[in-house]
Amino acid sequence: MTYPPPTSRTQHRPAPGVVVLMVAIFAAPPVGTFYARAAGAGEATSRGEPVRVRFRDAAKQERTVEGRVEVEAQDGGILLLGRDGRLWNITPDRLNQRERVEGNFRGMSSEESAAALRAELGDGFEIVRTKRYVIASKAGTRYAQWCGALFERLYDTFHIHWRGKPLQLEEPEVPLIAVILANEKQFVEFAARDVGPQAAAGAKGYYSILSNRMILYDLTAGEGSTPAKTLEDVQRKIAQNPFNLATVVHEATHQIAFNTGLHTRQADNPLWLTEGMAMYFETPDLNNRTGWKTVGKVSDGRLNQFRDYAQKRRKSNSLETLVATDDRFTNVDLALDAYAEAWTLTHFLIKTRRKAYTEYLARIAAKKPLEFEGGDKRIEEFREVFGDLEKLDRDFLRYAERLR
């Protein structure tokens, strides 16, 4: 078993007229943690027993968490899934006590999740619950209700879109949590504590792999504008800036995909795949309150960015580098082109190679947490499903030229 490099996925610098979205945050483990193979962790086993664990977290705070062991290393380090959906990487030196819990693992109920959020975040947050979501909001009840309805519509559309495909989507084991701050200032302050001051710089929101939460803020409360007071007011204000709405949908898609078995948290998920998927769903139909008719709608901004890249900067091995590593997404000078290529490639594969694309999705979804095999393996898996890369690349570029 190999481990991920110690890097974080962070926001890239925006360019005028281009939709800028936050990638899902993969918190980077510090040197010497459970991830460090050099420490002699050895091979690991997956999906173990429900336990109650007392340990010191990365900030040296004592915690007691009840959950399920997702991965156990031979040296005693564990990846623990808490009942609230949070993942904890616990090294042997920080593990104080572990005891078996009777019965099967059970995620928190909606009521338990709401109570836990109140205790954690304090009285300044209102709690809004829907069928699958628990939303802690400083942006008022109306905005939280509007977001909850949007999330539920997206969730249903996501399942409908993949229905009948060779994929086995699951129901989430835990309520899906969103934290909504009142304004951008509160968001920046919260994000700095949650994922670091640089990780969410310039973002409208993010989804955290480790906490399993979306963190957003009220997009109707811009400078010089009063927050929306009614659901209709929210709808009107949001519709004035579709780029902002795309951010919310993008992060909500990440959360759904990682909680329904389409992606596996802390596994080797290529960023072109996870980001391409989120971008593919990010344009909702606000005029349709019962469903989503615009999944896969052409993004002029993404397509134009890719065409410019293909004409001026794209190298002959661009497809291979996109698939093999995530480096281009984390490089401030390359990220916009990487996002544009990921959206265009996803659109191309779903529209022209749907069967192969779903087979590839199923392969990636089956990967185990904390097993990272490197670029050569990624290329091999991609080629096994989609065939010769040179031919695929030629077909891809022709498709992008014709796409309207």
Describe the structure.
This protein has 404 residues and is an alpha+beta fold. Among the domains are: 110-263, Collagenase ColT, N-terminal domain (Glutaredoxin, 3-Layer(aba) Sandwich); 300-402, no CATH class. Helix content is 40%, strand content 15%. The chain has helices at 110-121, 141-162, 184-195, 231-239, 242-259, 271-280, 300-312, 318-324, 327-330, 335-352, 354-365, 375-386, 389-402, and strands spanning 44-46, 50-56, 62-73, 78-82, 87-90, 95-100, 126-129, 133-137, 176-181, 205-207, 213-217. Strands 1, 2, 3, 4, 5 and 6 form a 6-stranded antiparallel β-sheet that branches. The chain has a 5-stranded mixed β-sheet with strand order 7-8-9-11-10, sandwiched between helices. Strand 3 and strand 4 (78-82) form a beta hairpin. The longest helix has 22 residues, at 141-162. It is globular.
